[in-house]
Write a structure and sequence with these properties.
The structure is a homodimer of 255-residue chains. With 255 residues, chain A is an alpha+beta fold. Chain A contains seven helices and twelve strands. The first copy, chain A, has one domain: q2cbj1_9rhob like domain (Jelly Rolls). Helices cover 23% and strands 24% of the residues of chain A. Chains A, B: InterPro entries: Phytyl_CoA_dOase-like.
Chain lengths: 255, 255
């Protein structure tokens, strides 16, 4: 369980970083299945225009080890504690940044898409991002504006990021808004070893640059949504916006 | 004059960082002319595909304040000391990264172009880069592989970076080479306030990501070349590869 100070920090910043939250053994078991996953030819495996694999969605459908990890007590209990109730998984994906690759993301709030494209009623969802590779200054770390979630939903313009071809649009925040938010709150880009975790609110503004390092940057995203906040009008495929609404319960690792 | 330790560091790393080397007043005088410069419609003002001004070349031709600065004793004496003889200016440009813009650069050695496109005989040239804006983690700092210059000219592939339309190609270094160099030497991306300087050898590998901050990132590049190493077979316009070969002498600021 998170400490009251950690919960308070999450509520204040919309961001909570937990270095080495998962063990290297747990991460190693997940990474061992990644080469098989990214080589698959399935709609859940999203490619960039340049042919790089940039994301693997709905991992639990085709990976036993990722399916088990989805029920990890640390994931479920942390999400329950921060969201204040029972949860299901809205998205479960790896975002892959290739070495010296092109994938980047403009400033956006995830709740923009969850609401507009999936029909999520309220911003009662969060991401637990898990570093499957070490995240450094040079491999495209995610940059956040801490506290930006407290500004609520910010008007934005839907557009397709250059790097992504077959996934989705993003509701891009404009310069004026970002300038105001950064003046007030600054920017942070948490780095850390494999197994580190950055938890962020669905309204926390974030962006990232391409990976200029010669190594991969895989980050696993587990998006938890309150059972009572299940999506109503999904327009994206069910591997992008899950609609089975199965309440997740912690299961002690049997692997 | 640089200390023997600073000269040694430059020779070892192909990189020397001098925080706040120029005063805020000197930088302020230069920056005051930048809005006029980037608004000009001249071949020296390079635009990106998106219409952003991404570079202003041969600044001394159309800016009195930049022309004077080109003769700054600190620039000339530093370049002379590190190159071991009299110099002229091969390039003199601002690279502008717009707020939340698209301009980035793949890994390359500048000497690749100086040799292949301009006919520079030997790598006896260096860049003095001067931060006209504060350079932070988030506005596209230049990342260097210290010590990479000691590997000499590395075979590479000429290509046009996505962000640049009317300037030039870059000799892009491939992943295998970068992985070896980074394993041996690491990567650094020097940040610093306005007026800071990063001096780097023509063979030092470097790259940079786009600016995700809401503010501009202007860096001034003064490329010094030994008089005895003047270019022989220029193929690029004279505002990209100067061919007047005027020996520079320090002039105490009269402005």
């Amino acid at each position: 369980m998170l400490t009251p100070q950690q919960v308070e920090q999450y509520e204040r910043d919309g961001l909570l970083v937990l270095p080495s939250f998962f063990s290297l053994e747990e991460i190693g078991a997940l990474m061992a299945d990644v080469p098989r996953i990214v080589a698959m030819d399935r709609p859940e495996i999203a490619k960039s225009a340049a042919g790089e694999t940039c994301a693997a969605l709905a991992l639990h459908r085709y990976s036993a080890v990722f399916d088990r990890f989805m029920h990890h007590p640390l994931l479920i209990e942390t999400a329950r504690q921060l969201l204040g109730g029972d949860i299901y998984c809205h998205q479960y994906k790896i975002v892959c940044k290739d070495p010296m690759g092109s994938l980047d993301f403009p400033w956006h709030q995830d709740f923009g898409n969850w609401h507009d494209l999936d029909g999520m009623p309220e911003p009662k969802a969060l991401n637990i991002s898990i570093y499957l590779d070490e995240v450094t200054e040079f491999n495209g770390p995610v940059a956040f504006i801490p506290g930006s979630h407290r500004h609520g939903r910010i008007p934005s313009l839907a557009e397709t990021p250059a790097g992504l071809v077959n996934t989705t649009t993003l509701a891009r925040l404009n310069r004026g808004v970002i300038e105001e938010l950064v003046n007030e709150h600054g920017i942070v880009a948490p780095k850390g070893p494999r197994g580190s975790v950055a938890i962020f609110h669905g309204l926390t503004a974030h962006a990232s640059t391409p990976n200029i390092s010669p190594w991969t940057r895989h980050i696993l995203y587990f998006t938890a949504n309150r059972m009572t906040n299940a999506i109503r009008k999904p327009t994206r495929p069910d591997y992008v916006a899950h609609r089975d609404f199965v309440q997740l319960e912690p299961e002690t690792e049997a692997a």
